Amino acid sequence: MPELPEVEVICRQLNEQLRGKRVQGVEVYLPKSFHLAGAKEADLIGAAFTKVARRGKYIIIETDSNVALIVHLRMTGALIYTHDASPYTHVRTCLHLDDGDLLYKDVRTFGGITVLPAQAVATYPALQKLGREPLSEAFNGDYLYRLSRGRTIPVKSFLLQQDKVAGIGNIYADEALFVAGIRPTKAAGKLTKKAANALAAAIQKVMRDSIAHGGTSFRDYRDGNGRRGEHVHYLQVYGRGGEPCRRCGKVLKKVKVGGRASVYCTHCQK
DNA sequence: TTCTTAACCTGGAGGC
DNA sequence: TGCCTCCAGGTTAAGA
Q1: Bases of strand B lying below 7 A from some protein CB
Q2: Which residue places its CA closest to the C1' of nucleotide C7?
Q3: What pTM, to 2 d.p., does this model score?
C-alpha cells in the first residue's frame, strides 16, 4: 500500500530515469484508470518528461509541453519504468517512450493517471485540499496540537485525514503512534502539547526511516524499478497483532479504529 | 460541523 | 479440489 515513503522512493527513482524521455505513444487497457482533465491524449505525444515530484501521495509528472500527469496509486498501484513489460500483470496503461515504457499497473484498479494542462496542476482540487507535508519544516507539534483541538475522533483517524497531514496511511499511522507512545483510540483533542510534539517527531522518524529502507512492501508495492521495499522488516506494530511487542514483550492488540485495522501495545502506548 | 459507515475492487487466506 | 466468505485499505459520498 503506497504511502508517503513509498511514493517518495518512486518519485526519486523516476525523476532520475524519466527526465528527457519522450512519449511516443499511449495504450490504455482500462479506461477508468486514465482520465483526461482538460487535455487530450494527443497532447502527450512528443512531450518530454522534465520532473517527477510528490505532494502527499500524489505523483506529479511535468513535461516540456503544456501537459502534466497526476498519478495516485491508491492501494495497489505501481508506476514502473522498464525496457521489458512482459513480466508485469495488471498493467492498466502503458506510455511508450523513446527509450523504454512507463507502466501503470494496478490490481484493484482504485488508482489512476490524470492528464491535464500544466497550469491546471496548481489548482487541482485534490492537491489543494492536502494538509502540511510531514517532512517539511512547517510540520511540527504545534501544528498537530492546534488542528486537533476539540476533535473527538480517535487520533489514528485524525492522522489519516489527508487535509491534516498529507501522505500518512494505515501503516505509518500505527508505527508513529507506537514510537510516540500514544494509543490509536485516544481522542485527538485529548493530546497534550508534549504528546503532539512527540507524535510529530515520531511521524517524521518513521517516514525518514522507511524512505531510507526503500519503503514498505507487503503484497503489492513495488518501487519505480519494480523492486520491493525493505522497511517491512523494521515495522514495530503494523501487521503484528497477536505477536510480542519488540519493546516490552507484551502481546500486541489488534482493534478496528475508524474501520481500519490497527495494532498497538497496551503497555507501551497510553 | 463533525463523525461514522458504505462503496469501490480484486487477490489471497481460511473454512467447509 | 472447489466453492464461499472475509479481509486488506485510500478516498469519497451519504447519512446520522
Answers
A1: 2-12
A2: A261
A3: 0.94
